[in-house]
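Re: weekly structure request thread

Next one in the queue (478 aa):
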Amino acid sequence: MSDTETKLRANALALPSVIMQGITHIAPAAGLILSIQFITSLAGVTSPLSYAIAFVIILTLGLSLTQLAKHLPSAGGYYTYVSRTVHPRAGFLTAWLYFLYDPTGAAINLAFMGFFIEQTLKAEYGVLFPWWIFFLLATVLITLLIYRGIEISANAMMLLGIAEVVIVVALVVAGLLKPGDGGINFSSYLPGNAPSLSGLYLGVVFSIFSFTGFESVAPLAEESKDPRRNLPRAIIGAILFMGVFYLFCSWAVLVGWGTNDLPALIQSPENPVFLLGRRLWGGLWILVPLALLNSVIAVSIACTNAATRVFYAMGRAEALPRVLAKVHPKYQTPSNAIWLQTLLTLAVGLGLGFWIGPDQEFFFMAVVVTLGMTFVYCAGNLGVFLFYRGDRRVEFSPLMHAIFPLVSTIALIWVAFKSVIPLPAAPLKYAPLLVLGWLLLGAVLLAVMRRAGRESWLLKAGQVAHEQDGAPPHEEKM
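Done, posted below.
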């Protein structure tokens, strides 16, 4: 190891901080406030049912992921898992599709928040504050927090995450105390009330997008205390917490608004959760956008933490330039990976924001991320089965290592298929083409590298996992 490389700060994060990484990456307030209107426009009164179906799918995925996390703790996350259990080429393609996810997460969330702030200030006070100014300021803040140490960014996530959850729960409880037209009812969880099956399927896709982030716990393995024990706990803990949060809060928002008046919610030019806050809290409604701001900053920190650790791990394995493995000697953060991520955030956020608009950027990338992560999750599920039928055969459980991975894989593929057939309206209809094109580009890159005889670096992808797992390194057929 060169003098420009050191290790990440080991044992820096206790279990609560790791759980909060998963929770804030899922983004409770942003996930609800920014998606409830859109999901309701697709699934109608059964939008909470969309969250419920997504929760079951995500829980089975999380259980599968824990089976890899407890034996293969690595900053590479799914990249290392799939490289180690399926094949290095599959691991590379998994990371290739992952690049559509966490590396773009901060960009799309900050751009959308900038759009919200611009629209709100203009409507409320007649003040013009362009979205891109907020975007730039927030990007600088997040970069500084993450650059100066994992503990600093983790503490920031903890405070922001607690604040956003408390505010949202307080609001929806107030809505149950003063329900809208329709009163308190449970029609949201009756499938027959869905406007159409295709709408419910698409609602599930966006609900899955609202849950994505639980897997961001994995890249913090090398900085967590007792990762073999705490990572699985953090993954399931984050999923269970967010499942309860979404199922309760999405239902309570519709009840508070009025289940007999949902067309007004769907067609509202202003965010309906904001309007609900105005009706219930008067001048204190400003706490709702404050919760959203907290959530967006927290999820952007979580996305950046996860992405930079994957870049670091891929640089260490030389699947990406070795320079990305450089760690700051004082702060013990992957400094070059952080600068790369900052450049990606600026390019994606500003590029798409000025091209199709910061609001459309969010919804477009929601479909892109969900479809891309379908491949990533399915590859991880395959890895679980192969790993426990091979190296860990003595621990093989039909339920945990075969049935759960198979059921969640089928559910993901079915929902993804139904969400794009027939294609939704533009620009969403271009999202599947982008994912397919990106996957083909990765496959072409692999083919070119193999033809040129420069594919040996792929073998290094699983070496760290082998060492930490205690399994003897073995040769892969290229």
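Confidence is low (pLDDT under 50) at residues 462-478. DSSP finds 19 helices and no strands in the chain.
Next request, please.
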